[in-house]
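Interim report to the steering committee. The following record documents the input for GH3 auxin-responsive promoter (506 residues).
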Amino acid sequence: MAILGNIIKGVINLTDTLSSDANHVEAQEKILRTLLETAKETQFGKKYNFETILLSDDICESFADSVPYFDYNKINDEWWHKLHEGEVDVTWPGSPSYFALSSGTTGKSSKRIPVTDKMIDAIKSSGIKQVLSLNHFDLPSDFFEKEIMMLGSSTDLKEKDDHLEGEISGISASNIPFWFKGYYKPGEDIAKIDDWDDRVLHIAQNAKSWDIGALSGIPAWIELMLQEVIKYHNLNNIHEIWPNLQVYTSGGVAFSPYEKSFKALLGKPVTVIDTYLASEGYIATQTRPETDAMQLNTENGIYFEFVPMNPDYIKADGSLKKNAPSLTLKEVELDQDYILIISTVSGAWRYLIGDTIAFTNVERAEIKITGRTKFFLNTVGSQLSVNKMDDAMKNLEEQYNTKITEYTICAKRFEDGEFYHSWYIGADINADDKDIANSLDEFLKDANKNYRVARSKALKGVKVTVIPVEKFYAWSDQNKKKGGQVKMARVMKEDKFKEWENFVND
């Protein structure tokens, strides 16, 4: 009998029963007040009169009226650069213990996003919430005795001045609670290996000695790791070596594009739980099996605002215009795309994280990731969001009986002077690229009115190039992003796309 598993499951069940459902609107107002109180004596708090905001009748409205939007470049140029010059109390009291390195999907160099001790505490609290929510997924008691494979970036953080630097997954893994270390795989020694391919080789070599019950990580890199373990041990599927694998916790990107290829690596079904950990904080986690939507972590160090997704509010570089209206959690509506804005215990204020979301349940504060502001393709008025692109890939998967996990697109002006949507698709498809382009074009015309109008005017046509998916992984590897908290650029500008095409054709 799984005695320890029964005890752990019992504690989770009891704790979940005793805790009541949060009032998310009230929780958010409390978080904002705490953020403002804590930071009112910082340089940022004095500049934007946090003391005065705290005295207002509606601090949410006053905060939105007083503080402008910031993207990374703006807040770094105006404020965070001071942290690297030794200044303290800049946008948050003291100085951060960590900086999360994130080149994102379109940046040319690493962003350095402050991560305070308060943020580490907030991430841990959200992690505990995720563990407690497992009670809703009807998992057997022995699951809670199995080991958990967390695959992220290296935990070998680099010392720089008075702080440590690394990707957020590495920072989080280096701060796991002591009681969890016995369950954590690949273990501290392997997790510190900086070279991702070398780390995966060590995982494959040790795989037989582990009893993995759950996986956690970015879908693309989890798939590659599973493929290497299967290949190394000459298996048909991963359950032949990890028969007790029952849960996969995805994170950071929509899982749906990877669903078909991921399932092909399994011997039996697993429970997929979506989470949303970004370099700026732990945004949301799926808390119940009835939906694949995620609940915003409204009680743990982050205040959320939502800007309706409208091309008129977005500048060419993906940042927000000053007149873009923001809504609070009590003002949002279902099935509307919103640009996510956060203020955090790491000193990010009205910060454009770059993702778009839609609410599936407002009362429960449940959302789905719908895309990226920089991946919103509006050249010549096509207004294509990532979720529409993902839907188009699913349609191609069904039509051509294939798996498509990676793709990228550019609205490119060709030699004839006309604009075309140029797609690169990572797949093994036995069909002519022109036929695939026609199928893709017809699907998008049916699915998106703005696209259909654009195709009748300035958007001349669609071009498709099918390449091995390994080309996408090699591109990430070349850009030093392999295995990390990375999202492949679904949309590229022409200059970056030229680099991409040169790489593909080299």
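The chain has three domains: 24-95+294-372, 119-285, 377-505. The committee is asked to note this result when reviewing the revised timeline.
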